[in-house]
UniProtKB/TrEMBL annotation:
Keyword Transmembrane helix: no
Protein name: Bifunctional deaminase-reductase domain protein
Phylogenetic lineage: Bacteria, Pseudomonadati, Myxococcota, Myxococcia, Myxococcales
Pathway membership: Cofactor biosynthesis; riboflavin biosynthesis
Pfam families: RibD_C
GO MF annotation list: 5-amino-6-(5-phosphoribosylamino)uracil reductase activity
Domain (Bacterial bifunctional deaminase-reductase C-terminal): residue spans on this chain: 77-210
Oxidoreductase found in the keyword field: yes
GO process terms (BP): riboflavin biosynthetic process
Keywords in alphabetical order: NADP, Oxidoreductase
Protein source organism: Hyalangium minutum
Gene3D superfamilies, sorted: Dihydrofolate Reductase, subunit A
Length: 218
Protein backbone atom coordinates (compact mmCIF):
# COMPACT_ATOMS: atom_id res chain seq x y z
CA UNK A 1 0.00 0.00 0.00
CA UNK A 2 1.06 3.63 -0.60
CA UNK A 3 -0.65 5.78 2.04
CA UNK A 4 -0.13 9.48 2.66
CA UNK A 5 1.48 10.56 5.92
CA UNK A 6 -2.05 10.89 7.35
CA UNK A 7 -3.04 7.39 6.23
CA UNK A 8 -5.23 8.19 3.21
CA UNK A 9 -4.98 5.85 0.23
CA UNK A 10 -6.70 7.54 -2.74
CA UNK A 11 -3.52 8.08 -4.73
CA UNK A 12 -5.14 9.23 -7.99
CA UNK A 13 -5.40 12.86 -6.94
CA UNK A 14 -1.88 13.17 -5.53
CA UNK A 15 -0.03 13.50 -8.87
CA UNK A 16 2.76 11.20 -7.76
CA UNK A 17 5.69 10.59 -10.14
CA UNK A 18 5.79 7.39 -12.16
CA UNK A 19 8.75 6.23 -10.09
CA UNK A 20 6.37 5.47 -7.21
CA UNK A 21 4.80 2.59 -9.14
CA UNK A 22 8.24 1.15 -9.80
CA UNK A 23 9.17 1.38 -6.14
CA UNK A 24 5.91 -0.28 -5.15
CA UNK A 25 6.49 -3.19 -7.53
CA UNK A 26 10.11 -3.59 -6.43
CA UNK A 27 9.30 -3.71 -2.73
CA UNK A 28 6.37 -6.08 -3.33
CA UNK A 29 8.62 -8.45 -5.28
CA UNK A 30 10.91 -8.88 -2.28
CA UNK A 31 8.24 -10.91 -0.47
CA UNK A 32 8.13 -13.74 -3.02
CA UNK A 33 4.36 -14.06 -2.64
CA UNK A 34 2.24 -16.67 -4.39
CA UNK A 35 -0.70 -14.32 -4.96
CA UNK A 36 -2.13 -10.86 -4.39
CA UNK A 37 -5.62 -9.90 -3.29
CA UNK A 38 -7.73 -6.76 -3.62
CA UNK A 39 -11.40 -5.85 -3.40
CA UNK A 40 -13.97 -5.44 -6.13
CA UNK A 41 -13.65 -1.68 -6.55
CA UNK A 42 -9.86 -1.84 -6.73
CA UNK A 43 -10.04 -4.73 -9.19
CA UNK A 44 -12.47 -3.11 -11.66
CA UNK A 45 -9.76 -1.49 -13.84
CA UNK A 46 -8.07 -4.90 -14.23
CA UNK A 47 -11.23 -6.92 -14.89
CA UNK A 48 -12.47 -4.97 -17.89
CA UNK A 49 -16.04 -5.05 -19.15
CA UNK A 50 -17.94 -7.95 -20.63
CA UNK A 51 -21.59 -8.88 -21.03
CA UNK A 52 -23.09 -11.56 -18.80
CA UNK A 53 -25.48 -13.53 -21.03
CA UNK A 54 -28.62 -15.19 -19.72
CA UNK A 55 -28.32 -18.96 -19.45
CA UNK A 56 -30.36 -21.23 -21.69
CA UNK A 57 -30.00 -24.10 -19.22
CA UNK A 58 -32.52 -23.74 -16.39
CA UNK A 59 -30.86 -26.28 -14.10
CA UNK A 60 -29.37 -24.66 -10.98
CA UNK A 61 -25.60 -24.52 -10.61
CA UNK A 62 -24.40 -26.03 -7.32
CA UNK A 63 -22.60 -23.69 -4.91
CA UNK A 64 -19.34 -25.60 -5.05
CA UNK A 65 -15.91 -24.19 -5.79
CA UNK A 66 -14.82 -24.10 -9.44
CA UNK A 67 -11.10 -24.61 -10.06
CA UNK A 68 -10.10 -23.77 -13.62
CA UNK A 69 -6.37 -24.31 -13.07
CA UNK A 70 -3.95 -24.99 -10.24
CA UNK A 71 -0.63 -24.64 -12.03
CA UNK A 72 -0.25 -20.85 -12.32
CA UNK A 73 2.97 -19.30 -11.06
CA UNK A 74 0.96 -16.50 -9.46
CA UNK A 75 -2.68 -15.67 -8.75
CA UNK A 76 -4.75 -12.47 -8.77
CA UNK A 77 -7.57 -12.77 -6.23
CA UNK A 78 -10.67 -10.57 -6.16
CA UNK A 79 -12.98 -10.37 -3.16
CA UNK A 80 -16.30 -9.93 -4.96
CA UNK A 81 -19.08 -11.12 -2.62
CA UNK A 82 -21.98 -10.07 -4.86
CA UNK A 83 -20.44 -11.09 -8.19
CA UNK A 84 -20.20 -7.74 -9.94
CA UNK A 85 -16.90 -7.97 -11.82
CA UNK A 86 -17.36 -8.72 -15.52
CA UNK A 87 -14.10 -10.36 -16.52
CA UNK A 88 -12.82 -10.13 -20.08
CA UNK A 89 -10.14 -12.74 -19.40
CA UNK A 90 -9.15 -15.38 -16.86
CA UNK A 91 -5.76 -13.79 -16.30
CA UNK A 92 -4.10 -10.48 -15.49
CA UNK A 93 -0.81 -10.55 -17.36
CA UNK A 94 0.23 -14.16 -16.58
CA UNK A 95 -1.56 -14.37 -13.23
CA UNK A 96 -4.63 -16.60 -13.01
CA UNK A 97 -7.76 -14.92 -11.65
CA UNK A 98 -9.63 -16.29 -8.64
CA UNK A 99 -12.95 -14.73 -7.62
CA UNK A 100 -14.07 -15.05 -4.00
CA UNK A 101 -17.88 -15.04 -3.82
CA UNK A 102 -20.81 -15.59 -1.52
CA UNK A 103 -23.54 -18.09 -2.34
CA UNK A 104 -25.93 -15.24 -3.15
CA UNK A 105 -24.50 -14.72 -6.64
CA UNK A 106 -26.69 -15.68 -9.59
CA UNK A 107 -26.43 -18.83 -11.69
CA UNK A 108 -25.94 -16.61 -14.74
CA UNK A 109 -22.85 -15.12 -13.11
CA UNK A 110 -21.38 -18.51 -12.20
CA UNK A 111 -21.93 -19.77 -15.74
CA UNK A 112 -20.24 -16.61 -17.02
CA UNK A 113 -17.16 -17.19 -14.85
CA UNK A 114 -16.94 -20.80 -15.96
CA UNK A 115 -17.14 -19.77 -19.62
CA UNK A 116 -14.26 -17.33 -19.07
CA UNK A 117 -12.14 -19.90 -17.24
CA UNK A 118 -12.11 -17.83 -14.05
CA UNK A 119 -11.74 -19.92 -10.89
CA UNK A 120 -14.06 -19.13 -8.02
CA UNK A 121 -14.37 -20.02 -4.35
CA UNK A 122 -17.28 -19.55 -1.99
CA UNK A 123 -16.45 -17.80 1.25
CA UNK A 124 -19.88 -18.02 2.89
CA UNK A 125 -23.62 -17.85 2.29
CA UNK A 126 -24.16 -14.09 2.69
CA UNK A 127 -20.86 -12.83 4.15
CA UNK A 128 -17.25 -13.82 3.59
CA UNK A 129 -15.48 -15.85 6.25
CA UNK A 130 -11.95 -14.68 5.57
CA UNK A 131 -10.24 -17.41 7.57
CA UNK A 132 -12.18 -19.99 5.58
CA UNK A 133 -11.20 -18.27 2.34
CA UNK A 134 -7.49 -18.37 3.21
CA UNK A 135 -7.77 -22.06 4.07
CA UNK A 136 -9.31 -22.80 0.68
CA UNK A 137 -6.65 -20.81 -1.16
CA UNK A 138 -3.96 -22.87 0.53
CA UNK A 139 -5.73 -26.20 0.00
CA UNK A 140 -6.84 -25.70 -3.61
CA UNK A 141 -4.00 -23.59 -5.02
CA UNK A 142 -1.07 -24.06 -2.65
CA UNK A 143 -1.03 -20.36 -1.79
CA UNK A 144 1.00 -19.82 1.37
CA UNK A 145 2.11 -16.21 1.09
CA UNK A 146 -0.46 -13.61 0.06
CA UNK A 147 -0.07 -9.88 -0.54
CA UNK A 148 -3.14 -8.01 0.70
CA UNK A 149 -3.30 -4.79 -1.32
CA UNK A 150 -6.50 -3.08 -0.20
CA UNK A 151 -8.67 -1.21 -0.19
CA UNK A 152 -9.12 0.05 3.33
CA UNK A 153 -12.27 -1.92 4.17
CA UNK A 154 -10.66 -5.22 3.21
CA UNK A 155 -7.51 -4.33 5.12
CA UNK A 156 -9.66 -3.47 8.12
CA UNK A 157 -11.58 -6.74 7.86
CA UNK A 158 -8.39 -8.80 7.77
CA UNK A 159 -7.03 -6.81 10.71
CA UNK A 160 -10.20 -7.43 12.73
CA UNK A 161 -9.99 -11.15 11.94
CA UNK A 162 -6.34 -11.25 13.08
CA UNK A 163 -5.21 -12.57 9.70
CA UNK A 164 -2.33 -10.16 9.01
CA UNK A 165 1.21 -11.27 9.83
CA UNK A 166 3.18 -8.31 8.51
CA UNK A 167 2.44 -4.74 7.45
CA UNK A 168 4.49 -3.19 4.64
CA UNK A 169 3.76 0.38 3.57
CA UNK A 170 5.46 2.91 1.31
CA UNK A 171 4.53 6.21 2.91
CA UNK A 172 4.23 8.94 0.26
CA UNK A 173 5.44 12.47 1.04
CA UNK A 174 1.88 13.77 0.86
CA UNK A 175 -0.44 15.28 3.47
CA UNK A 176 -3.92 14.54 2.13
CA UNK A 177 -6.23 16.04 4.73
CA UNK A 178 -9.45 14.96 3.02
CA UNK A 179 -12.12 14.33 5.65
CA UNK A 180 -13.81 10.97 5.15
CA UNK A 181 -11.36 9.74 2.49
CA UNK A 182 -10.59 6.00 2.56
CA UNK A 183 -7.70 5.15 4.85
CA UNK A 184 -5.23 2.30 5.18
CA UNK A 185 -7.51 0.47 7.62
CA UNK A 186 -11.24 1.21 7.56
CA UNK A 187 -13.21 -0.65 10.20
CA UNK A 188 -16.96 -0.77 10.57
CA UNK A 189 -18.57 2.31 12.05
CA UNK A 190 -17.53 2.74 15.65
CA UNK A 191 -14.40 1.57 17.38
CA UNK A 192 -11.99 -0.30 15.14
CA UNK A 193 -9.79 -3.27 16.03
CA UNK A 194 -6.73 -1.38 17.31
CA UNK A 195 -3.60 -3.56 17.12
CA UNK A 196 -0.08 -3.04 18.39
CA UNK A 197 2.80 -3.37 15.92
CA UNK A 198 6.52 -4.04 16.18
CA UNK A 199 8.79 -2.09 13.82
CA UNK A 200 10.98 -4.43 11.77
CA UNK A 201 12.71 -1.95 9.45
CA UNK A 202 12.51 1.47 7.84
CA UNK A 203 14.18 2.70 4.67
CA UNK A 204 14.15 5.84 2.56
CA UNK A 205 13.36 5.05 -1.07
CA UNK A 206 13.30 6.98 -4.36
CA UNK A 207 11.08 10.07 -4.39
CA UNK A 208 11.17 10.57 -0.61
CA UNK A 209 9.08 7.48 -0.03
CA UNK A 210 9.61 5.76 3.31
CA UNK A 211 9.30 1.98 3.41
CA UNK A 212 8.05 0.82 6.79
CA UNK A 213 7.74 -2.82 7.80
CA UNK A 214 6.00 -4.05 10.93
CA UNK A 215 4.94 -7.35 12.40
CA UNK A 216 1.78 -7.60 14.48
CA UNK A 217 2.17 -8.26 18.17
CA UNK A 218 0.19 -11.24 19.39
Amino acid sequence: MVPSVDGRIVVTRWKLPASVTGEYERTAATFGADAWMIGRISMEPYAGKARIPARKDSRPIPRTDFIARRDAESYAIALDPSGKLTWKSSSIDDEHVIAVLTEQVSDDYLAFLQSKGVSYLFGGKTDLNLKRVLGKLTKEFGIRKLLLEGGGKINGSFLAADLIDELSVLVAPIADGAVGAPSLFDAKEGKGPARHLKLVSFEKRTGDLVWLRYTLKR
